[in-house]
Amino acid sequence: MSAIAAAAPRTAVRRVARRRTRPGRAILQGFLLTMVVLWLFPLGWAVYSSLRPLSDTVEHGYVSWPAGGLSFTNYQTVWTQAEIPYYYLNTLVIVIPAVILTLLLASMVAFCCTQFSWRFNLIVLMIFTAGNLLPPQVIIIPLYTIYLHTPVAMLGSIDVGKFSFALFSDNNLLYDQYIGIILIHVVFQTGFATFVLSNYMKTITKEITESALVDGANVFRIWWSVILPLCRPALAAMATLLFTFMYNDFFWALILLKSGDKRPITSALNNLQGEFFVNNNLIAAGALLACIPPIIVFILLQKHFVAGLTLGSTKG
Amino acid sequence: MANTTTNLAPARTPKASEAGALVATRRRRRYTLLTRHDKILIALMVGVPLTLDVLLIWGPTLASIGFSFTNWDGIGPITGDNFVGLKNYQFMFTGYTLFWPAFSHNLIWLAWLTFVATPLGMFLAVLLDRELRGTRIYQSVFFLPVVLSLVVVGFIWELQFAPTEGFINNAFGLVKSGNLIDWLGNPRINLFAILIATSWRHIGYIMILYLAGLKSVDPSLREAARVDGATEVQTFFGVVLPVMAPINVIIVVVTAIEALRAFDIAFIINQGKNGLELLSILITNNSISEASLVGFGSAIAVVLLLISLVPIVAFLSRVMRTLA
After folding, report:
1. Per CATH, the architecture of A82-311 is what?
2. In this predicted complex, what is the ipTM?
3. Would the N or C end of chain B have less CB density within 10 A of its end CB?
4. Where are the domains of chain A?
5. Angle at alpha carbon of residue A83, lines to A77 and A88, rounded to 5°
6. Which pTM was predicted?
């Protein structure tokens, strides 16, 4: 009885409140819906253009209903003529080792800096974090020089069908090599990953490391079999984020690679523009093909992606 | 995550009088636990990544400063004869016609992101924080462009802005009537066209960061403000915004860094020419892509470095307090 009596005025208040805010809510929903349409339109337009044959758009104009029907012909053309699969492969050859190496190095540094107190651990963290915040263009000139003058061994190549992937180097240099791109991705992103992982690891109590030390485990063993498993959520988030960052990179590949056939897909797109410059529909198809992997990541791993971004900010 | 820290905190903080002694014994114990072997392992685990970072990030940063005082062309050794003092800087500030346009484009970029795109992202976050119907779908839509590369973003917006084939000119009948607006070619407006494209991505990024911050604000604070009769707007500016001070700093820093790094879209549209000059693009054009004026390009890099240090130092001083 008393519960019902107590509940009654509360529902009344709530009803009044809801009635008062209803026009506000409607305006809000209207505004957000407009924004959503604005947001999706450019992407939807690209999809629409990519599905139309060039002849159709030439005849009827770009803003017109599809008189000639829609088809995937543009995708087929780009896929075969621009050798899209090959550039996907280039991207994978660069991104997969780079993500794994970055996570290993960054988690080592984060582990040593958060689980043990030594004199310079904060300074080390600052060096890594600040390094990642620099615009890449600040370091590019000396980096380019270093890449042109660092000898790297040639160890043959791995051939996949008609494609050949050099092991380490095919010109004795870091310049114009997959390994050079992997290296700069790893070093540059280790700064960011170290910062985020330290944020995560400092919430792990030091007693875990201490008791493992008492049990006789060495530091390396503790990092690998105690701390890394505990950081699985943060590592998943970072892997998702790093994959997207590296996949989307344009600058390093543009400057540090010369051969067109070594380019990852994102920077290969730039050449597409020159090749098919009269045919916007083909370019749209190429651009959309290039963003399929990040969109798959977005759909399947959005939670991890957001977690990675916000680990780096809200915890800081 | 945030909860784990707060839950552990009381258990780990003993009475103030005991705290000092406890910390001392704990520290001593930790050091004795580490064997010589362990210390070498730690040195390696930190040393290898640190060496790489110093060699490929900080070394080149210092080298950029050094190069900026020379007229080195990147070929052959650098000798004392290459030293030219401040000549590169003098030419950059007074003789080089592209420097000030590029500098002001970076400033406009920064101002646009700071006063238009970032506030809009924050505004969306505040709206979506109110648990409206469909809030998850809205979030996903605004967030979608964030995963795309700027190259793809550039292509997608070229389909909107292109003079004769683009959507905008066709939809408004400008192609038929012959009043073409050259959104990407006219140096008076093309910067704003690519700023719209950039914002499409930046706004979602800021929204996600800010939304996470808003979710971490203690709901009882808002409750208290409402009980005291504050309106929603008053609550936001009087209570929520001050509590969010740390994340506000990060948002400002992220915005500034994005503005200084701007490169990809301008390069995709027209190699950063004719109204789209940016400091980042002048660096590569002068020293790598078009000419090999290593010394002169480095002087521009030093200017970019000095500007970047402002947000970097702001970020570090904010963040390192909590990492300590």
Report:
1. Orthogonal Bundle (1.10)
2. 0.86
3. C
4. 2-74, 82-311
5. 120
6. 0.87
